[in-house]
Amino acid sequence: MMSPDVLAGPHVPHFEVHFDAKTSALSHLPGTCRLDLPIPGLHGHFEEKWLTAGATARQEGPFYFLESSDHLHGAVVVNVEGRLEEPIHAAYSQLLELCTARGFYLHRIWNYVPHINESDHGLERYRQFNLGRWMAFEQRFGRDLRAYMPAASGVGIGGSQFILTFIAGKTHPVYLENPSQVPAYHYPSDYGPKPPSFARAVLVTEGGTTTGYLSGTASIEGHRTVGEGDWHTQFRTTMHNIEIMFDRMDMMEALRGPEAAAKAGIVRRDFKCYLRHAEALPLIKDWLTEELGLASHQATFLQADICRQELDLEIEAVVEKRTSGSH
Asked: Which residues contact 51 (CB under 8 A, 6 or more apart)?
């Protein structure tokens, strides 16, 4: 079973992610893959170590990953010049081949898109990214593509490299949507030639533990942004969406403080918040940590552009819950 752990020992096979790095870099040693991300850290832990029992470090094409009998956890760094559709299509096509050749399903993806809100040749770069990603899913799965879309986040990064990290596994996940939002893959053409390709959350149950991956969640109702320029309204709308999704994941206790979470068998609740403006940190940090009763190691705040120019914050989460009979 895979799990994030900032205290993992050096001899346990693990995938490391280091935020707040000076430059991007991807490397591997026996039993370890490491990704350095130049995304500014604002508060919390900027290093993650995801454990993968019995895994070995491998490279296949441009992808570096840890592979075990039932999991993959890896990354790719792609140099991009000009428009994004083709390099994104190529990277996602390789990723989907990597997974389907092993009979694995994508569970979670993190996308870091260079200059995500800028326009290039008449089309915003996030929309270019969405077009390339959609083409890869459509080419692989045809008309059934929406049935294979994982939880995901997509935020901006500087420089000229697209970076993707992913988790995949043998277990077929449960895909969840938010009834108060239009599924991202059904967004109208107002948001680009092709819609985003992700589920709002997925559940993966393995070995007596259910892991919930909450996709990047923001202040959107239906398909429209709520609270442009108003941090408090955006935070409250985002939290409302998170509450809906945690209820659907049967993990509401993860939002009710440490005692309620522990009593319900919640053994991990890690949140990550991306902020467009660093000066929003004191307010958003206080609102989030106080509302959820989070310890300092359970919330990380990073500075990044959000996929829509009018959005100022996005929150994601990884939560683990012991199922009955596993205590």
From this structure: 2, 3, 4, 5, 8, 12, 13, 14
Q: Would you call 30 exposed, middle or buried from its count of C-beta atoms within 10 A (0-12, 13-18, 19+)?
A: exposed
* Cβ burial, residue 279 (10 Å; 0-12/13-18/19+): exposed
Please name which of 264, 274, 260 lies closest in space to residue 304, comparing C-alpha atoms.
274
Which of 315, 37, 50, 303 lies closest to 163 in space, CA to CA? 37
pLDDT confidence bin for 6, thresholds 50/70/90? very low
Give the mean pLDDT of 253-264. Answer: 95
Residue 13 CA: distances (Å) to CA of 166, 227, 262: 16, 43, 27
- One-letter identity of residue 20: D
| Pair type for strands 220-221 and 224-225 | antiparallel
For the chain, the first-to-last Cα distance in angstroms comes to 16
The pTM of the full predicted model, rounded to 2 decimals, is: 0.95
Residue 85 tokens read as: 């559709």
In contact, 49 and 28? CB cutoff 8 Å: no
Is 315 within 8 Å of 198 (Cβ atoms)?
no
Active site residues: 314
Give the Cα-Cα-Cα angle 83, 98, 196 (nearest 5 degrees).
45
pLDDT digits (tens, 9 = 90+) for 118-160: 998 899 999 999 999 999 999 999 999 999 999 999 999 999 9
Residues 158 and 150: beta-carbon distance below 8 Å: no
Q: H or E element: which one contains 100?
A: helix 85-100
Contact 313, 306 (CB under 8 A): yes
Given a contact cutoff of 8 angstroms between Cβ atoms, the answer to whether 15 and 73 are in contact is yes
